[in-house]
Every structure is written in C-alpha cells, then in structure tokens.
Amino acid sequence: MSIRYLLFVGICLGIARHVYAVDLTLKPGETSDAVIDATVREIRTKCILAQDYYFLRRLAVAQMKSIASPTGGIWRVTNAQLKTVQNACTGRLMATCRKVQTKFIIDVSTVTMSDLQKPLHSGLIMSLFISSSVPPVPLQKGQQALSWKHYINSNGNVSQFSIWSNELEKLS
After folding, report:
1. Structural domain boundaries of the chain?
2. Could you say which residues form the signal peptide (predicted)?
C-alpha cells in the first residue's frame, strides 16, 4: 500500500469519527454522571454560573434522588422556575441570557419544558434560576442544602442533601 493511500484512509477515519461524535449533553433523557459533569463544566467554563462551589453538581444529584418524575430534566426544573428565568431574561438577567444565546446558541425565551429533557438546557435554566433567585451561592454544603430547600425544592430534605453530597465527594 502506498503512503498516500494510508494517509487518505487515516484522514477519512478521523473525519468520520468527528462527524459521528454525539454531544450527550444535548441528548434528551441522558442522566449519566459523565453527562452531568460535562454539562456543569460547560456552564462553568462559559461563565454562566462560574462560582457555584459545586452546588450545581450537588443539586443534580439531590433533585434526581428526591423527585421521581424526570420532568424538567436532570435538574427537575419546574414550569414556575422556567417562567421565572424567562421573565428575568428581560430584566436583571438580560446580559447573562444574551451570553447563553451567544455561547450556546440557545434562546432562553423559547425554551420549553420538553427542551429541558436535554441536560444542557436543564442545567442552563437551573443555573439562571440560581442566579436570579438564590442570593450568592453559599460555600458550605450545609448552607447549600438550606438554599436548595428554601429556593429550589421546598419538599427537599436538608440532611439527605448533605448525605448525597458526601457520597458524591467519595466518588470523585
């Protein structure tokens, strides 16, 4: 075989691998730890919720374990939370929502509940909800648990949040 042929095959395989790669953060219903981590990493690196002190990651676990219904995606975003974010995008979150539009090509004003089945959409909306509704994200897990119960999931169990957070850290 000629070197040109081998080079051609190598290039084709590289292109095919890239073409067939699937971004699981955009796959509806995906809930794996790897997808959650990838989603959180994307949100952090694009500075949508950069200083979350692992709250978004802990929140994903707490929401999935405490709310059985997958409505609202991984972060179990409610319709009320989605509406709060969409309203805030016309006011105090306007700059951040524009950043989401620019960096992710997601228009928050048109996101629907069914869109939230995509991990990236669910994570972004919850990040924006945290930005609009939770005073600065607390550093300590215990305070994060209280914020979760007070602002995000009034039926949440604060001690369970801490237990789940500790379990999550053992896996890391």
Report:
1. 21-171
2. 1-21
Looking at residue 156, the DSSP 8-state letter turns out to be -
Residues 6+ apart with CB under 8 A from 48: 96, 99, 100, 103, 124, 127, 128, 131
pLDDT tens digit string along 80-100?
A: 999 999 999 999 999 999 999
> From CA 56, how far away is CA 36, in angstroms rounded?
9
Distances from the Cα of 109 to the Cα of 56, 97, 101, 106, 124, angstroms: 22, 9, 10, 9, 12
Torsion from C-alpha of 82, 66, 136, 79, nearest 10 degrees: 10
Residue whose token pair is 């709250």: 55
Q: Is residue 122 within 8 Å of residue 73, measured between CB atoms?
A: yes
Q: Which residue has the tokens 């929502």?
A: 97
Nearest by Cα to 27 from 120, 124, 123: 120
Query: pTM of the prediction?
Result: 0.86
62: enclosing H helix or E strand: helix 55-66
Q: Both tokens of residue 63?
A: 């929401």
Give 142's contacts (C-beta < 8 A, 6+ positions apart).
Answer: 158, 162
